[in-house]
Amino acid sequence: MIRRLRDLLAPSQRPTLDGSIVLTVVTAVLQGVCFVLLVPLLSAMLAGDTDRIWFWTLVLVAVAAGYAVAMWFSARLAQRVAIDLVSGLQQRLGDKVAQLPLGTVDLDLTGKLARLTSKGVMQVSTVPAHLVRPIIHAIGTPATVVIGMTFLDWRIGLAVLVCLPLLAVTYYITGRVVGGRDRAYADATASAAGRIVEFAQVQPALRAYGGTRAAHHELERALGRQHHTYRAVLVGGSLAMSGFVLAIQAVITVVTVVAVGLALGGSIELPTLIALLVLGLRFAEPLVSIADLGSGMRVSANSLTEITEILDAPVLPEPKDPEAAPLPADAGVELEGVGFGYVAGTPVLSDIGFTVAPGSTTALVGPSGSGKTTLTKLVARFHDVDSGTVRIGGVDVRELGTAHTMAAVSPVFQDVYLFSGSLLENIRMGRPEAGDAEVFAAARAAEVDEIAERLPKGWESEVGEGGNLLSGGERQRVSVARAILKDAPILLLDEATSALDPVNEQAVTRALAHLADKTRIVVAHRLDTVVTADQIVVLTADGRIAEIGDHESLLTRDGPYAAFWRTRTRAAGWVLAADRS
Question: Is the dihedral of CA 450, 452, 458, 459 positive or negative?
């Protein structure tokens, strides 16, 4: 645990942790020595030997003073380490999330991060001051006492040493029980947090389509699992800790029986017996707390493991010198032999290959689950391909690096996320360095000015976390305004208008016309989009290319696309029959 904490600290901060631990060991030993010194002091007091009383009193005061000084410095250092851990871990987690592949940032990770950046980081930061130091005291002080008891009477020291394996075994079992159940509770808590966020975000769809009962069931199941695992932590932890306390009581009993037996046999004097019994009780007192401390250490270790897993999560490889990386020759996109799967051994896309000419429009058509959205995310480098190559302007996106790749594309997806802030601030995110005139021009082109006019504070109106104060269509308009402001050469459209009402659909369609000169890759379901595309890529259900061509040539082949066209044409002609009853 200490080594893992050191790895999380900056090199310049590690000596502070080391100094705190060394001073804590010193304080634990000095405290144990203070307890051992009570034996000769009590013996002198019971014997009425004034000279020995003064001598041992002065020795005890000197050791206690050293203990106080070492304790003060170790506490200060431990608190400094805690502050370094809090600021450092939160900063590193934030930096790491910014480096993770965008495709891996989902609701489960969001829920885990929400818990780790608050509760988890605090649990880890308290380890040096509130767990490591007390544990060192709970072990170091009794160990010093046992050594002192051995010097005073080797038979009592031997009796304690014989009992130590019992304490070690019960302590190990306690830690295993609490640690294992806390891991299950942490997983359940992260899952429940993700379900709560999801449940809040999809309320409009749930209420519109009557899915609240099923969604409630999923949420209740996640919360029920969290409750069940927490109860298991409490019950299992209580039983395990009770067993450890019983083991400590057994050791006290053994020491008492041995000491009394020796006194009755005349091997030790009564004053020494009393002092040894007092010392035995002082030996046991720190051990009672070690079970609690050990359980807390296991819980913190679980949080530390989760934090480390995120910090050690693989990131997309980047060019060694991003500035020297080759730049795209144009806005063309090429996929060659592309294969990809979210889970090893389960491909989503296989042997995908096609070229998108600069300034042209390619429509992706296929059944649900055929990998259309995944293709757009591979072009934007949300993930790296498992096989094959994705090129922009003739350059592999892995050679371009994430920054240059993202600069070349503007994704406009169906699920739009807006940040808590004003309407204008959310549009400006498309290109933060843009001037006000450019931002307002992009906003007007996307017809966001109509939205601003309706809001109480106009452009400075807050949109709420996730944009929840705007409708889905309004959020989509803001997303298109960002794309217009960004002015990237490649536009990725994933069903951008499929879930919009007619008014917002027309507004978004008109706004996208301002990006007509861009290279477009469109996940298309609308017939007018498909017909006007320069190229149509038809995917099969297992993520392969069935055929490629323009609308007329694909109809002539009478293949999968022609079947798709006939089905959509019939659906577009549906009308509601009048009630003739």
Answer: negative
